[in-house]
Amino acid sequence: MARSSRHITTMSFFSIVGIALFVLESFIPMPLPFLKIGLANVSTLLALYTFGLADVLIIVLIRVVAGSLLVGSILSPGFLLAFVGGVSSALVMSALKRTTGNLFSMFGISLVGAFVHVLMQMFIVVLLFVQSTAVLVLLPMLLSSAMIGGTVVGWIGLRLHQILERMGSFMPRAF
Fold first, then answer.
1. pLDDT confidence bin for 165, thresholds 50/70/90
2. Residue 12 belongs to domain with CATH number
């Protein structure tokens, strides 16, 4: 399918926003290295409300690969966790948005995405890295962090979406 220059520009914009937030967040000190807000997911959320699933997955892939290259974590366990978490949350958020109509707000979709992100990362950690369910003791803390992160990402996403909608001509119509 041929894409218009506006479509490609908007996808590039969302990718760059995601990469910038990914890199920025790597400089924010956290109490534990794996405890993050997930600011880069703002680009996924915005893309979800603008494009179809295939384009959202492309943006997630670009964001995770380029961001990981820039922070020096490409092909590390963190890269794999970011990739699996990003793709799985994009798939679930897209399905939820498509099948429930307006039942969930952008906040609700963001929260579900954050929870899926954490749960899939924990699944990969248990399956590939620690091979023990003992690590699940961290799940309440990680899900609490996901609730905070999902709320922050949902709020930022909603505000940016409103701004971009007012710009009108910048945003392509959703497919």
1. confident
2. 1.10.1760.20
